[in-house]
């Protein structure tokens, strides 16, 4: 984002970034690359595909990071949406992660804080990087310096709001909000499956990732859904080249709207 990776190429990808295949064949969970990378960004449960990584898959990433001295950035914004027992909620459930991983958490999706702007980062004191001199140094002091000089975090009222999410009443409200969205996800997922669309996600994430009808691009599908059904979906190609041929349906809506969309989908010609 800061432009340090290198120039953009004609296909929209950037020099200096290794892109991993996220395809239906690997259920949108890529294996670590063969080559060395400095930083790895992983997001599970994933936006936009709704994919989750198993303990074994995450272990392979932690092993990779330790072997290559890479830093894993683990975006767990949708952690609260995991419904399957065996799926890890945090990268720190994986042995060895405390030496190589940083986890990003947000209140945007569990507590409906989108726009309120509050989240947190888990930066273990045992995470180290290698300096130019070859010396291993902990990243925590750099992180702390950054936060205590460049920013002083969110306002006090917002912090109190975030704190309230951990009260017993707050926990219950978060739980029922997530259950509500996941109820929508099931309705939308089933509606797509009923008209023989190929669906992914929607079980451990509030997103349903759907293959576009044969021969249609993401944007062509967007146009048809808008014109024929008055329904807005998100074209997969907007998330990157590999999203072409897919679209994302979000479960963040009222039950009434989810049911109405499920109904209208049945009349898609
Ligand atoms: C919404 C979202 C977040 C959270 O972002 P905030 O800046 O905390 O609102 C993080 N990662 C992903 C993939 C998201 O979709």
Question: What is this structure, in a nutshell?
Answer:
The chain has 269 residues and is of the alpha+beta class. The chain has helices spanning 55-68, 140-150, 156-164, 168-194, 218-229, 255-265, and strands at 39-43, 71-75, 101-106, 119-122, 128-130, 136-138, 199-201, 207-211, 234-235, 246-250.
First and last CA, distance? 40 Å
Largest beta-sheet details: 4 strands, mixed
Average pLDDT figure:
95
Provide the CATH architecture of the largest domain.
Answer: 3-Layer(aba) Sandwich
Structural domains: how many: 2
Indicate the multimeric state.
single chain
- What is the number of beta strands? 10
Overall body shape: globular
Q: Using the coordinates above, name the CATH class of the largest domain.
A: Alpha Beta
Which structural class should the secondary elements be placed in? alpha+beta
Which strand-content bin applies to the residues? 15-25%
How helical, in percent, are the residues?
25-40%
CATH superfamily of the largest domain: Type I PLP-dependent aspartate aminotransferase-like (Major domain)
Q: In order across it, which strands form the biggest sheet? A: 1-2-3-4
Query: What is the rounded Rg?
Result: 20 Å
Q: Number of helical runs? A: 6
What ligand molecules are bound, each kind once?
A: pyridoxal-5'-phosphate
Listing every helix as H and every strand as E from the N terminus to the C terminus, the arrangement reads: EHEEEEEHHHEEHEEH
Low-confidence stretches: none
CATH topology of the largest domain: Aspartate Aminotransferase, domain 2
């Amino acid at each position: 984002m800061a432009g340090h990776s290198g120039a953009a190429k004609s296909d929209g990808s950037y020099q200096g970034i290794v892109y991993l295949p996220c395809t239906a064949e690997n259920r949108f969970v890529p294996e670590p690359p063969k080559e060395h990378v400095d930083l790895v960004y992983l997001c599970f449960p994933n936006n936009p595909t709704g994919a989750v990584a198993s303990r074994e898959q995450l272990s392979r990433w932690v092993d990779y990071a330790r072997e290559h001295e890479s830093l894993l950035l683990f975006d767990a914004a949708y952690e609260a949406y995991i419904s399957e027992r065996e799926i890890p909620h945090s990268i720190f459930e994986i042995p060895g992660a405390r030496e190589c991983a940083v986890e990003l958490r947000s209140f945007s999706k569990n507590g409906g804080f989108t726009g309120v702007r509050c989240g947190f980062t888990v930066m273990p004191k045992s995470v180290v990087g290698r300096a130019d001199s070859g010396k291993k140094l902990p990243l925590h002091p750099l992180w702390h310096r950054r936060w205590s000089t460049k920013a002083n975090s969110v306002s006090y009222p917002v912090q109190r709001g975030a704190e309230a999410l951990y009260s017993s009443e707050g926990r219950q409200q978060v739980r029922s909000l997530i259950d509500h969205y996941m109820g929508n996800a099931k309705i939308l997922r089933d509606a797509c499956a009923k008209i023989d669309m190929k669906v992914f996600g929607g079980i451990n994430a509030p997103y349903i990732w759907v293959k576009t009808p044969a021969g249609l691009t993401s944007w062509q599908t967007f146009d048809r859904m808008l014109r024929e059904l008055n329904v807005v979906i998100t074209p997969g190609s907007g998330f990157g080249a590999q999203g072409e041929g897919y679209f994302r349906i979000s479960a963040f809506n009222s039950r009434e709207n989810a049911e109405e969309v499920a109904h209208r989908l049945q009349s898609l010609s």
